[in-house]
Amino acid sequence: MSRQVLSPQELRRYERHLTLPGLGRTGQERLKAASVLIVGLGGLGAPLGLYLAAAGVGRIGLLDADSIEESNLQRQVIFETPDVGRPKVEVVAERLRALNPHVEFDLFPARLTSDNALEVFGPYDVIADGTDNFATRYLINDACVLLEKPNVYGSIFRFEGQVSVFGLPGGPCYRCLYPTPPPPGLVPSCAEGGVLGVLPGLVGTVQATEVLKLLLGIGDSLSGRLLLADSLTMAFRTIELTRDPACPVCGDRPIITELQDYEAFCGVPPGNGSTSVPAITPLELARDLESETPPFLLDVRNPDEYAAANLGGTLIPLGELSDRMHEIERGKRRAIVVHCQSGARSAQAVRTLLDAGFEDVRNLEGGLLAWERAVGRPTVGDADG
């Protein structure tokens, strides 16, 4: 990073940094010369963007293909109600430019893929992972290792969060911690399992702290350690991590030397975000539900998810499906449509039913999340049967 001269306005803005022992004017100039890419502008990306921009990181890349949904507002505090429907990258850039006009922003309103990751990551000093799915996390990890860039990782689920730094010389990478992804649908997403609204603020702020420490060269990073945060007990603990010499990407004899098909690696082929099973779109289902012979609708979520919003179908949680198939025996005489929140668990259920001899079974593409976008907000009703 080359030295950047601070303007009089910046000297006033960063006064509390300039008087901070161990940071001072030299450190602030390092931040101005630095660059960070934030991948994912949701619950983690919001505090990451706000604190990195406020701190004066000179160049910040913003990557996210999504538009703002009403359900985002509970935790993605950088957005406001009138922003619903707008692209996340545009709104985040507006907010951060208003916060600090001395920062440059690069906007990437696109999905991160194996085709673009190395090119996008190339110009940045640090990559901050604010994503929420395994395929993208493995992609970010491998790209960072191949490019020798630090990966500041964070994840959240329900009431708990994790933070670490991967990819530093001699330190572990994400694959050292999780060599293989869990089976599709086994670990619910935040959309399916829920998340306490303040938790991503807590975790994302820790991530921002780790990014700033790396850029400034101060303190002890979380490389080699996994920070676990439990918001219910307000307990924080760290687990020691070590680099796996047999790791296929960062080990002594790496066998992964180029980026892969990460959706296939995680068992989630491109498309509707679920395993390859017969599927139906939300608009097609809405039409069929109005027909003379509507399909048998099976909801495989949990009771608390059903109580929050549902389509009025029969509720049989995925874990109980094998023991309760007799309850949908009539489904053999008409089409069955299975759904969950995002399409992953219901895809497993479709495979289970097909293997059991049910013939006309389809998965609702994208689950209730896609239904809400295409048709409207689900109703709240009593379970069928």
Q: What can you tell me about this protein's structure?
A:
- The radius of gyration is 23 Å and the shape is globular.
- The chain folds into two domains: about 35-265, NAD(P)-binding Rossmann-like Domain (Rossmann fold); about 280-375, Rhodanese-like domain (Oxidized Rhodanese, domain 1, 3-Layer(aba) Sandwich), CATH 3.40.250.
- Helix 4 runs parallel beside helix 5.
- It is of the alpha/beta class.
- Helix content is about 35%, strand content about 15%.
- It is built from 15 helices and 13 strands.
- Strand 7 (about 225-230) and strand 8 (about 235-240) form a beta hairpin.
- The strands form two sheets. The chain has an eight-stranded mixed β-sheet with strand order 3-2-1-4-5-6-7-8, sandwiched between helices. Strands 9-13-12-10-11 form a five-stranded parallel β-sheet.
